[in-house]
Amino acid sequence: SDGKVAFPNNTGNILQVVQTFKKDSFSTSNNSLTEITGFNVSIAKTSASNKLLITVDIGYGRSGRDSTEFVLYEDSSELTSVNSTGATNNRFMTDYNHLGDTTAETYSWYNISKTVLIDGQNDTSSHTYKVYAHSNAVTFYLNRRSYSYSEGTTSSITIMEVAA
Fold first, then answer.
1. Does residue 77 surpass a pLDDT of 60?
2. Which of 3, 72, 77, 124 is buried most deeply by CB count within 10 Å?
3. What is the pTM of this model?
């Protein structure tokens, strides 16, 4: 009678979507995990029991032949529940691609993406999700290849609140 559509059971409905784009480049040669500055998004669930569907899309290059690791953080803590298990380095996402030589590696760039469904904190407070990264013994470049700035991309974090 009020003109609004009412769903008797809204389980699984998307209630809100937040997204951030990282458009500029970022680099680090730190051999330990480093927060990618300016690459975070905050969300407050409308109900503590709802879930969060998080998608991380990253474009990057590196200065040599080695692995690149990415870790997802919620506020100041690593979300270990989404990491792999059974390896020496258990990470959210890892890329290990050795091209023919270091020169070929510096001309290349990669795109990596992952989506996870998590419970998140059991509250309706705002929480910030961010990505830490590093490449072992080489320089990591977000949104560009190592060789030059002539080609670039954007990286994003998208979070959807899913009704429980």
1. yes
2. 72
3. 0.84
